Amino acid sequence: MVKSIFAACTFLTSLLLFVTIGSTAPTKPVLTLLNWSEYMDPELIAEFEAQHNVEVREVYFETEDLRTDMLLRAKQGDFDLVVCNDLSIRAYVNQGWIEPLSQAEVPNLKYMDPRWQKLSPESVQHGAPFLWGTTGIAYRTDKIAEPVKSWQALFSPEEKLRNKILMVNDVGDMIGMSLKTLGYSANSTDLNAHQEIEELLLKQKPYVRNYGYMSLDENSVLVTGEIWMAMMYNGDAMMIRELNTDIEYVVPEEGGNLWVDYLCVMSSSKQKALAKAFINFLNEPNNAARLAQFAYYATPNLAAEKLLPEDFLSNPYIYPPAKVLAKSEIYQPLPGEILKIRNRILNRVIQR
Predict the structure, then answer these.
(1) 190 and 333: one domain?
(2) Which domain CATH number covers 269?
(3) DSSP characters for 302-352?
(4) Disulfide check for 61: which of 12, 67, 115, 250 has CB 3.0–4.6 Å away?
(5) What is the pTM (predicted TM-score) of this model?
(6) Domain of 309, in residue numbers
(7) Whole-number pLDDT of residue 116
(8) Distance of CA 273 to CAs 28, 116, 122, 276, Å?
(9) How far apart are CA 224 and CA 28, in angstroms?
């Protein structure tokens, strides 16, 4: 009863506030970005807001699937920009969700490294490469004496790692990297291989404390020592390494996932011109270089690379050596039946 009264009072208060301020609502346009957390430099946002007299709002998602679900539920104009990978762009183009981009509208696309614009026609026509990186293993060197070299250390762990592992809750990474552990391609469609990885993931489960993502601050479970090993993206690992130098990151000898994220304009956006101006602003070479250093990820902007300090460009965690890139894979489109099998495997593992 008390909760009901409180809820009613809260609703009425919100309604009164809405009525009171409705006539004096801010006239600034609002640009809403759907993004991963800790993936945008707030200083750059503040500068764009000042230059364009606009408010930039970020809404965060935790997984690829959750982002898609949020877009499915979104109303017309809820989001103006979205960060997504090549596979998602292909799907979103088919749904009619994202707007084509051209160099005439976003002149700074001229600075893009061509290799990130060749993954698919959809990403060339609809996405502005944002940042790129790798998926590997982060671990505590003060807890694990031997250097981690293989995915086996994560998927077939030692007894001391029981309840000390964190896995990302992402079907592509979980299944893809377990396939590489067993010597298959991350893009394998072999049914026997998928049966093997289900067995592998079920054996690993007692060692996994959580399937999800960790915070990137002093409360990170890898920083505090609640976990000792995690599947992780290189920039995230570098960010928390600033808080604890006992954290190491490695792309295992089998190779990892090589990925690139894009900025895309939503077809339903009411601020398309402003959204494209924001993409262009972020790709001013100086701004793109600042963004890369904030996020600890490599930039696809070739002009920005020339402005980055040598210790950043030579950091193998950020710009992996050629032999690592050669063994790493970009996720490719898979048959619908294989995607269903992968989702079923992940659901059975996590829910058991």
Answers:
(1) yes
(2) 3.40.190.10
(3) HHHHTTS-HHHHT-TTTS--HHHHHH-B------HHHHHHHHHHHHHHHH-
(4) 67
(5) 0.87
(6) 25-132+260-318
(7) 87
(8) 15, 24, 20, 5
(9) 42
